[in-house]
Structures are given as structure tokens and as C-alpha cells.
Amino acid sequence: MDINALSQTASVRTPVANKLPTPAEVTKDFTSFLTDALNQVNQAQVESANLADRFAAGEITDLHQVTVAGQKASVMLQMTLQVRNKMIESYQEIMRMQI
């Protein structure tokens, strides 16, 4: 077997491990995710309040639109509260762990 023939083949490329994000990058991404989620909940609450005010003033006659916006805001707020409660429970559980 000719060794020179082997050297003419294309070099084998090993896959480079994906660069793992640093803890600071993960924290920044998580923080921005939570901030965006809370902003969406706030926006839904504001939209619901605006629609209710416009309905009370007689500007909107479609009660379904107001009701759906109110329920959407309510469900989003309840979900946010449940996520917060789970995060607090998780933190408390971690604090109870013995080292």
C-alpha cells in the first residue's frame, strides 16, 4: 500500500464543539426573556383596560372583543403568578438543601 496516496486525500475535519455560552450570557438571555414576558403581560392588561374604558364610553359595541381581551389578560396574569410561585418554591427548596 502506498503511503503517499493517503496523504493526497482530503484532510479529515473533526467537528468543533459548539461554543457554550458563558453564565453571564445565559443570565442576560434569561433576564431579557423574563422582561419581554412581563412586558407582554403588562401590555395585555393595558389593552384590556383601554377596551373596557372605550366600551363604557360607548365607542365599542362589540362586547365579545372586550371580554376576550379581559380574559386573555387575566389568564396571562394568572400564568405569570404561577410561574413566580414555582420559582419561589424552587428557590426555597434549594435553600433547604444541605451542603
From TrEMBL:
Alphabetized UniProt keyword annotations: Bacterial flagellum, Cell projection, Cilium, Flagellum
Spans through the membrane: none
InterPro entries: FliE
Origin: domain of life: Bacteria
GO BP of this protein: bacterial-type flagellum-dependent cell motility
Keyword Ribosomal protein on entry: no
MF terms (GO), sorted A to Z: cytoskeletal motor activity; structural molecule activity
Location in or out of the cell: Bacterial flagellum basal body
A cellular component term, taken from the record's GO annotations: bacterial-type flagellum basal body
HAMAP family assigned to the protein according to its UniProt record, in alphabetical order: FliE (MF_00724)
Family in the record: Belongs to the FliE family.
Protein name as catalogued: Flagellar hook-basal body complex protein FliE
Organism: Brevibacillus gelatini
